[in-house]
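Problem: given the chain below (429 residues), write out its structure.
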Amino acid sequence: MSDKLDIKDLAMPSAAKIIAEKKLDVSKIQGTGLQGRITKGDVLLYLNLMKNDDKLVSKNTISNKIMSNRKDKKMDVLVPILGESVVEATVSKWIKKQGEFVEVDEPIVELETDKVTLEVPASISGILDNLAVSEGDTVEVGALLAMIVAGEKTEEVKKPAVEKKEEKVHQQKVVSNVNESKPIAPDTKIIRSTQNENLEERVPMSRLRLAIARRLKEAQNTAAMLTTYNEVDMSALMEMRSNYQDSFEKKNGVRLGYMSFFVKAAIDALSQFPAVNAEIDGNDIIYKNYYNIGVAVGTAQGLVVPVLKNADDMSFGETEANIAEFGKKAKDGSLGISDMAGGTFTISNGGVYGSLMSSPILNPPQSGILGMHKIQKRPIAIGDKIEIRPMMYLALSYDHRIVDGREAVSFLVRIKEIIEDPRRLVVGA
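Solution.
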């Protein structure tokens, strides 16, 4: 590698640290981050590839189609790149089993992260061999999943059709000889353990739900998470929306919602308080001079957070159109990794479900999440008068390790100022 190449310009701080420690050739590592910068996940992938092959990998060896041994006609199946900030996944299900024949591009195994479920396809046709991991295992980017021995399809081996049926062991209803010296009072009601068995249903958690639960708990255990609250008068914003709804829809082909205003307000506040848009990486703080705003969406499969990339460059119409498209994709399950990668800040709207107040949990590695809630008419003191106004509670959960209380409170105050007087977005006040 040329000494003139500055690693700081080519790689993120966490990636640059590993590159320096391992003395890696940065020219051989494919960058998938913003503007082609090398991320920590890219370095981990490169290192895992090197573990499986003595030869250094090139820039074109990113997918599971790499690591081919043409002499032996074998191909390693590796964990692909999962997204900019995602470095590990859970093996959800083996679609194909040991010894089965697989066609090229046929799904082999299903992986789940806290953001998305994806299938890893076969890069060649052959026999699936050497399953290196089991269902439920956690694997890193570039880790070995299995091996495919190239070959043509032969007569299929008949699978044994014998299935073991688990016998249900019923609990005995009454055990009368436990302590006969203490008789049961005549008026004592005996509640049998089997009484409500038919009213209960035990369903295993999905891998996605388990991954979400694990990541949320990790956020609570890792971050010094605090939440601050404020309230905002929605009168001005509701009036503006009512006045321009029809003309906005005719021009942009999409309805004007509240979310686009909160996205724009959040970007304005983030520009003034950059720590809320930053993240901790080891002993470093990464300040991000771009605004990728995640919008939390609840689905039947769990919570997903699609990201508005470079939201500061979007108009109100573009913002609303992208949010509407994300909602459609979330319903039909077509959200991809690229839709949910790279978020710097998250907005969650529990108000659509009727929530009046909540404390949102951080979406790691982000340092802040804004919670919107139900619009509720309440009596408010305006000057010396009591008026009924449509009010909304706002909540900002933040990582107190890098965001101070003053910054968090000031951030919410700025959101409040813009929402209560949306004209500030136009004049920049």
